[in-house]
Design a protein that fits this description.
With about 90 residues, this protein is α+β, with helices and mostly antiparallel strands. About 25% of the residues lie in helices and about 30% in strands.
């Protein structure tokens, strides 16, 4: 199943990049380059969504439309797409 959530990426004072997800509470990633940060954000979102789906209710938060996100100067928004394969016994 495919899930797509927006990530806001900011350049830090250290020169690295830090990604946060407005919809995925406490889901963050930091990398040395923008590309690395997008990659790490994808991994973080995959872990976050997988954990959430394994919970009893298995509900994910609604997805914020990119056009509704207020950005600060220099911020970048990227849609992070995560593919999760459900394993045997998922529907039990």
């Amino acid at each position: 199943m495919k899930f797509t959530y927006p990530a806001i990426i900011k350049k830090t004072e250290k020169g690295t990049y830090h990604a946060t997800f407005p919809d995925l509470i406490c889901c963050e990633a930091e990398g040395d380059t923008l590309e690395e940060t997008v990659e790490l954000a994808n991994e973080a979102a995959c872990d976050w969504i997988s954990l959430e789906l394994s919970e009893d209710d298995g509900e994910l938060p609604p997805i914020t439309d990119i056009r509704d996100i207020v950005l600060e100067e220099g911020d970048v928004v990227r849609n992070i797409c995560v593919n999760i394969r459900f394993t045997d016994g998922w529907d039990e």
